[in-house]
Amino acid sequence: MNSPILQLLVLAGIAVFLILRLRSVLGTREGFEKPPVPKPGPEAARRNNFEIIEGGPDPDIVDHVPADSPAAEALAKMKAIEPGFSVGEFLSGARGAYEMILMGFERGDLAEIKPFLSDDVYESFAFVVNDRTEKGLTVESEFVGVKELQLVDATFDDATSEGELTVRFVGQLSFAVRDRAGEVIEGDPKAIKTQRDVWTFAREMGSNDPNWQLVATGE
Questions:
Q1: Where do the H-state alpha helices sit in the chain?
Q2: Is pLDDT at 84 greater than 90 in this prediction?
Q3: Do the beta carbons of residue 145 and residue 139 sit within 8 Å?
Q4: Is residue 146 part of a domain?
Q5: Does residue 27 or residue 184 have the better pLDDT?
Q6: Does residue 56 share a domain with residue 9?
């Protein structure tokens, strides 16, 4: 046997030896890797996600009210009927609604804010505005901002699917009342006044109307 053929056979033998040694150390692909797990179908994925949500607290709820409180239970029922409902987004909208409704009342412009008021609240606002008009009083007011905002309670009516959210506001604004002669008889147009309000908003969860209505006011 000539030399080149002999050398080739020796190299081939060495290669086979090395392959066998590597397989004994590392194992084969089938023995080293776990078999692929089939991707769950839509029903399994939905069930797993539901269990995760049900198994732990919802941050959108417990960030605003105590866990296991009646308010938390009410919010969970609201979200069950209307999955797109967000407590955080509601409070963001309530901040803007507070300014709009408060300024509409102070300036006597109720037409713009009427869709956001219950009949009882609208009637009470209208009584005050009409009384000021009859007395020749005008209000000067400029909104500065909301200093504090907190969700203090939540309730849910199983029979009507109506949710109610009560929010405490601490707002800042300038405020002055002038008589017919233009004299300031209350407040100071150059001073910043702090105003505290507790408002309750209500809405039928799951309805097509996205607007919440102001149904009660207090301090």
A1: 3-26, 29-32, 42-55, 59-62, 70-81, 87-106, 119-134
A2: yes
A3: no
A4: yes
A5: 184
A6: no
Domain count, the chain: 2
Tokens (6 digits) for 84 = 């797109």
Alpha-carbon gap, residue 171 to 94, rounded angstroms: 12
Q: What's the confidence (pLDDT) of residue 56?
A: 75
Distance of CA 212 to the CA centre of its chain: 14
Residue 113 has pLDDT above 60, yes or no: yes
Question: Domain of 75?
Answer: 42-218
User: Residues 117, 10: one domain?
Assistant: no
Predicted TM-score (pTM) of the model is: 0.73
Tell me how far apart the alpha carbons of residues 93 and 100 are, in angstroms, rounded to a whole number.
Answer: 11
**Is it the case that residue 29 has pLDDT exceeding 90?**
no
**191 within a domain of the structure (yes/no):** yes
- Give yes or no: residues 195 and 89 share one domain: yes
Length of the chain (residues): 219
Residue 138: inside a domain, yes or no?
Answer: yes
